[in-house]
Amino acid sequence: MRDRLMQILAGGLPSGVVSTSREVTSVEESPSGATLRFADGSAEGPFDLVVGADGIKGAARKAVRAGPGGGSGGGNDDAIYSGIRIQYGVALAGQRPEGSERELHQWFGGDTYGLSATYQGIGDKKFEMVAAVYQDRDRKEENAVWDQVEAKGACLRRLDERGFPQEMRALAEASDRFYELGVYYRNPLEGWVSRGEGQVVLLGDAAHAMPPNLGQGANQAIQDAYCLAGRLADLNSGAAFEGSLIAALRYYERVRKPDTSLVLAKSAFVGAVETLGGAAGGGAVGEAFRDNFFFGMWKAGVAEQIFMDGAMPKV
Q: Which of 88, 101, 208, 211 has the lowest CB atom count within 10 Å?
């Protein structure tokens, strides 16, 4: 869905800079710099700084948690399970009502929150997405269900049993890519800068993976990158930090951590309320609370304020 954005970002880089299909297995720090080690046995470095934008299970995060020396230690099982799962599918545009390309359509059905939306990819090709979000307190292995046929069938049964409209069902039926996954997030108050030589810094999901209920994951990552780039530019120009890389990184962390922590908390709360109802979410009482809560938030203009606040840059 973000192919066009990735194309724009990659297009601004010199030829040969982007290297794909290479798995980084560890990041090792030393007085001479940080070294990247790859699954094929190769290595690159040393580098003055490694920016870990490699997601919730990335090697850079492991290095930051490992402490002095870096490497692949420190564990990576600190993901917090939200108790929420998502079934979602993607199809070529054509299933949603005409004229709804710029609209997000949302429904509540029993204990499930449903969403459909249209996105534009490369070459003006449009795609449609359907998602069913629900509570399941039994923690499963991350991204455990990638059998597309099984995930699609389970989603269709859920939509039928909970009386979702034909738009949702038709879009789910037409989807040629289908997935199911648990929603995990990380404690954003943990350190984003390595405790060893200070040669590894995190941004985006690697630093503060959050539930997707406010749609802020990519937005916050872009703000992280902008803020970090600005501080490194100040360092290189001599405008600030008196030549100290670690001071520049700590400044970036202090600026971005409060806002991302707040967005994460809001997103987790919204996700929990959206999926009230059913056996896991308080039954009919939970559904009634959810419906009245969001109606009141909409009438008071609070819902719009929450979404807009997250979207406004704070760098």
A: 101
